[in-house]
Hypoxanthine phosphoribosyltransferase
Amino acid sequence: MLDSVQLHDLTFTPYLSARQIQERVQELGRQIAEDYAGKRPLFIGILNGAFLFMADLARACPIEADFAFVRLSSYEGTSSTGSVKTMIGLREPVEGRHLILVEDIIDTGQTLHAFLPELARQKPASVKVAALLSKPQARKVAFEAEYTGFEIPNEFVVGYGLDYNELGRNLPDIYSLAASTLP
Ligand code: XMP
Ligand code: MG
């Protein structure tokens, strides 16, 4: 039984356990390994939120692959600001590569809606998105990831890479501002 956690001024309740997360990440890794065998994809993790998901997904996907990170920013506090800045760009050439963007969560969809055309201009062979979490009810632009860990309600969540004003990223479990779903 997990306890609630206090981050800054807010209390978060347990939502997805580390075990549930790990099981799902293993499944996603196996699926991606099957789909990309022999293609040597380039995984592009979106910092900071995706750092743990990327690390676990990489280990769950035993094929030849490359790994890189970008840093984009659209979020402040508990809501998306709508504009997306590239804080750290890609150094790796992506022309002709099979890209898998690795995101912690898709909320309004605006981050990827802004970033995907930027990538497309560099002529990759293909681009797919792996998101650990998705909040379908929060979309402002239509967007679906090819690989989604969990669809969740429109509630703010923290843990496993996700933060509330930079706290909570190192929690192994995911917590929500809404009522607990774990026993
Ligand atoms: P958009 O709205 O562009 O948002 O799809 C994607 C980015 O917003 C952040 N985000 C969250 N961060 N808890 C967080 O800690 C949340 O519930 C949440 N929802 C969105 C996240 O950085 C994601 O990459
Ligand atoms: Mg993020």
